[in-house]
Amino acid sequence: MRQHILDTPLSYYTIFFVARYLPLKICRWLGRAVALAIYTFSRHDRNGFASNLSIALNMPAESTRVQRLVRRMFANYGEYMADYFCLPQMPPHKVDTVFAGLTGEHIIKAARNRGNGVILLSAHIGNWEFGGTMVRHANYPLAVVSLPHNSAPTNALVNRLRGAKGISVIEVDASPFSAIPVLKHLRQNGVVAMIGDKDFFGNGKKISYFGRPVRFPIGPVTIAMASGAALIPAFVLKQPNGTYFGVLEEAIQVSSEGSRDEAIQANLEKVAAVFEQYIRKYPDQWYNPDPI
After folding, report:
1. What does the pLDDT read at residue 90?
2. Segments in the chain forming alpha helices (H)
3. Helix (H) or strand (E) holding 230
4. Which end of the chain has fewer surrounding CB within 10 Å, N or C?
């Protein structure tokens, strides 16, 4: 997992305790202030964000719009970090005040009626962690598939926050056997949340992403192909008033035509097309500083 400047046990536990005792509004203000300070000194990440936005929006990285989006992206990420720790610690009635609604819930209900489980597939856009809280709050049996954080104390804290909301955690690595608990949860008609836009293990497949050859992880689509689970693109996005809304897209029609590699390629391209659509619509919530 990529390590960022705040990815230390001291930072995570400090934010955790601040979030417990301060109002959400103040936590978000502090988050923005810290993120904008990092923006000032983190030229590498500024350039990474600008490069990606330049490709996604088809405009020069040095253009005024791209540079403004980069600054706004840092500010938004600061709020995201505050929400990351605040929202899981809030009681349900307060969570409801931050959640503006979920579009497409009928899609997940219809998928579960088929009995093969559901894969909610998202990208590094919006607040994917709050998405887990929202789905579990709606009483779906949710397991989040994740990589371990860079230190054991940080990992324990993050999983504690998830577990407090009844979210199961399935940690995966490069081993093919790490998919077994995911398949088991799906066989029980459970819901699995996964991130599908970064190849963390280097065994992904190159597809066209914003017109560039980018390696995508094959795990989500191969699990969908093996299990028959519905593969539903899902996003949790922030509105200007600070509330979040969830969006479930129609399930991707998972192809099995041709060879296995050809089917995986076709399915990944369908996933990438949906991700592109949302990134272009919400570019200042696309938190990916690694150049694509």
Report:
1. 80
2. 9-21, 24-41, 43-57, 64-86, 92-98, 105-113, 128-137, 152-164, 180-187, 219-227, 260-281
3. strand 230-238
4. N
Q: What is the pLDDT of residues 1-33, one digit of tens each?
A: 455 556 666 777 787 888 888 999 999 999 999
Residue 216 lies in a domain: yes
Output 160-165 pairs: Cβ under 8 A, ≥24 positions apart: 161/16, 161/85, 161/88, 161/89, 162/88, 162/132, 164/88, 164/89, 165/88, 165/132, 165/133, 165/136, 165/137
How many domains is the chain partitioned into structurally? 1
Query: Rounded to whole angstroms, what are the CA distances from 146 to 74, 158, 219, 243, 277?
Result: 23, 11, 12, 25, 24
In a domain, 191, yes or no: yes
CA 57 vs CA 200, 216, 261, 277, 284: distances in Å: 25, 20, 30, 11, 11
- Which CATH number is 281's domain given? 3.40.1130
Inter-residue contact 230 to 186 (CB < 8 Å): no
What are the residues facing 212 on neighbouring strands? 209
